[in-house]
Each structure stands twice: as C-alpha cells, then as structure tokens.
Amino acid sequence: MFVRNRLFAAFSILFLSGCAAITAPEGGPRDEKKPQLVSTKPAPGTTNFKDKTIQLKFDEPIRTKDLNKELIITPNNGNEYTTTIENETLNLEFSKPLEENTTYFLNFRNGVEDVTEGNKAPETTLTFSTGSFLDTASVSGKVMDYITKAPENNLTVALYKENDTATIRKNKPYYFSRTNADGSFTIQNIKAGNYWIYAHQDRNDNQTYDQENEKIGYLPNPISVNPKADSIILQTVWIDTKKPFVLTTENFTDQNTLVYNEGIQKITFQTVENPPKPTSMLFMADETGKRINIYPENGKLPTSIIALSVDSAGNQGLDTVKFKLANKPAIPAKLYFKTDRTELVSGIPNKIKLTFAVPINVTGNKPYILVEDTTTKITPLYPEAYQLNPTKTELTLTYTPKAKNLVNLTLDTTQILAINGKPLQKQSQQFTITRRATTGSVSGTVKTNFTNYTIELLDEKNIVINSAQNLKRLNYKNLQPGNYQIRVKVDENNDGQWNLGDKELKKAPEKLYKYPKPINVRANWEIEDIDLVF
Hints:
CATH class of the largest domain: Mainly Beta
Structural class: mainly beta
Number of strands: 44
Number of domains: 5
Shape: elongated
Radius of gyration: 34 Å
Largest sheet: 8 strands, mixed
C-alpha cells in the first residue's frame, strides 16, 4: 500500500507539471498583443537605490531573446549580470554592487517578448540612481555615411570622458546607444561634461573599434554636454591603415603578374641598384586593382625590381619583386578589340573607343580603314586622329562621318600588334548613322577659393566616368542620356591626395561637396547653366 501511494503521488506531480506548462493556444485568432510593463523594482526615477537586483513585471508570461546584445546599460562599468524569469517577471542580478552616486539607464530594446508568438515588448526602459539625484543630461543626433549621406542603422554610438585614458580602440564606452533605421540616436541620463563621441559598426559586438572592416564616424573635438547636446551629426568612413603588399608573383612566358592583398590605385617602379632610380614598366591592372600584369618590352623583363604601390587610402607599400619569363603563355592566342558604341552621329566629331585585352603597339600610321556607305574609303592617320592611353590598352579615334547609312571600320592587322608581338585577329565593326544626336552635354562654371581639388562626374550607378583636377569650367560632351552627379573632393592640406579619414581619429575627413541635385541629360540637349560653388 505504501508503494502504491508513492507511485500515485509521483504520477500526480508529473501530471500537474505537464498541466502547468505554457504553450501556444491551438486554433483561434493569432495572438498579436504585445507584453506591457506593469511594474519595476526599483520604480522609475528612484534615488538612493542600494540593491543589486532589478525586477520587471509584465502583464503576461515573457522570455528574453538576444538580451546580451539588445540590453543597453549605461554607464557601462563592466558589472556583469545574470537573468532569471518567473512567468511574467524578469530579474537581473548584478555580480557586484552598483556604483555609488550614479544614474543608471536600462534600455531593453527588442530583448523581451511573449512566449506565445514572440511579440516584442515596446519601449521597455528604466532609469534610477544610487545617489540622491538623477543625471538628466543627454546627447542626440544622427549618423550617416560620409559619401552617400545614407542613414546608418544599428551602429553603436559611444561616449568617452574627455580626460579619461580609455580609448575606443581598447576600452568599452562609459555611455552608449544604437542608431535607429533613420540613423537617429539618443543617449540619456548621463552626467554633464565633455565627451569624445564616436559611431561604429561593432561587427563583433565587443563595443570597441578594433577591426579594419568597420566603418566609423567621429568628431575631431570633444562635445560639451551641459545639460544636453543635440543635432550632433556623425559621418562614417572606412579608415584603412594597412599597407598594400605583394602576396605572390605569377610567372608566364609573355607576362608576370603581381598579386596584391588589396586594390592598388597607383604603382611606380624603381631599379634595385643603390641608390634606386625610377624606371618605366609597361603594365595593366585588372578591374579590382589587385592583379597587375607586367609586360616585357623587347622580349625582356628585369630580374628584380622595386614596386612602389599606393592604395585608395594613401597607404604606401614597397616590395622587391623578382621576375622571370617561364611556364606557359598568359596572353590568349586570338586577340580582338571591343568598341564602346555601335551608332555614330553624322556631321559632328565622334569618339570611338577601341579597347584591347593587352597593351598594343601601333606600328603604322593607318591602323584602321573606314568605309562609308560601302563606297567611300577613309584612312585616319595615327597619331593625329588617335589617342592611346598610358597603359596602351585603349585607342580612341576622333572621326566626323559623312555617310548617310553605314560606316564599316576594319583593323589593319599588320599595323597593330599585341605587346608580345602577335597580330590581332582580322576584325571589322559596323556602325549605323543617325542625323540626330544620341547624346547630350553639360557645361558650367566652377566657383571656389580652394586651389587643389578633384571634380568627378558619376553616372546612375555611382561609377566615376570623368575625373579632373582643378577645373575652372565644366565641359562634358557626348554623355549618354540619364542622370548624373557631380562631386568635388577637396585636398585641404595640399598633400596631393584626398584623405577620407585619420587613423588617429583626430582630424576630420577632407571636404566632399556634391552638386545639390541630379543632372538629367537628354539626347540632343545642352545643359549650360551649371554653377558648381564650393
């Protein structure tokens, strides 16, 4: 009898435990009600709070989700906590006593939800003080990308005391918050004073800026928070401090390839003798800038050379590389050219860009033959009617057609040779003739007191299609219809490059101006009233 009673009691306990389990109701309307905060301990605005446990009670059973990421506790003094949940109640117990005479602000953001449908508790915050009063100073503003001006969502905005030794690269911030979808942020209940302010991506959630692949926004001087600082604008940039370097050299019988760790903006060469001397090399970079093909001239390459590289952030690299012509060819056996257009406008100068896969040498003065309407033969002379770019991969022909219907362009394979001496494949390109301009133009004036700057014209895909330094007048011709942007990068310190940021986070990025609205270019239309003022 005794054994049977124990078994019955055990069964009853299991049965009751199963009945007490909270599960989503089956059938019926979906639960869309959000859990509401009923009470807190301490109550909002409490002063002289001395306990180590915080308690929040909601109107329905809740659970936490990613609370370690969602919960913001300021000031951030490294005091760890543990959480427990009892149905509707959430308890936070700190491992150490809270700091004396300190105002605490807790923002649970999206860290609390109900157990049935995961509905998020809205705007769950708590403010209290361990001293006799509440700090009420605040900082608010917006974070955006420096180049695009797009708002930055879910970035950490951090405050460091001006006279503290803590830095964003090594220490967690004392006060912090995160940006909303529109880039806005607010940090409240902070102690009045002067602070360094930053905004960064914090990809690894360690609340420090310790990765090169994180964007960061900063101000070069501290802000005064007394009692508040609002309308703070932080603009994020990429701070690249790594030097470019050669990962490997690939050897072929007709070229050597330098493979870099990142894209290269500029490369020059020096001899290895002491002292080194500048020397020219024929090279071509791929579209990423990471692969630099070096071509032999007269069938030879130096055995070793010094490569001086510069990346987009101005970091400079120096490598001594060794060359040899070995293994198999890299240049294709059959080589062709490409054109950037298939239609020409009659009666006006047209530019035809001919692009090659490898550098070329023009060995005669009539590299192309033009035939208009299948009867009239024209032979533009080189170099008078042509322009060869520095890498010898683009040959631009300026030509005014008189044809009524068609123009046929044919390569003379005896007068254009690849860098390895091989002729190109016999090839023709046909163009149709239009009497109405298919392109437009933009012109205008530049008004500025700056002496060194770069003006860039960008297409609808934000690709730079024209870049020129220190222009006094804009004159863009033969533009395809579409929307364009004009921006100006100002070299304020006149060091020959535009600096996007400072690795010490003490100097602001150099100025970037944008023409205030897109420029809509239409076919056969001239825009002449652009005033670029900066």
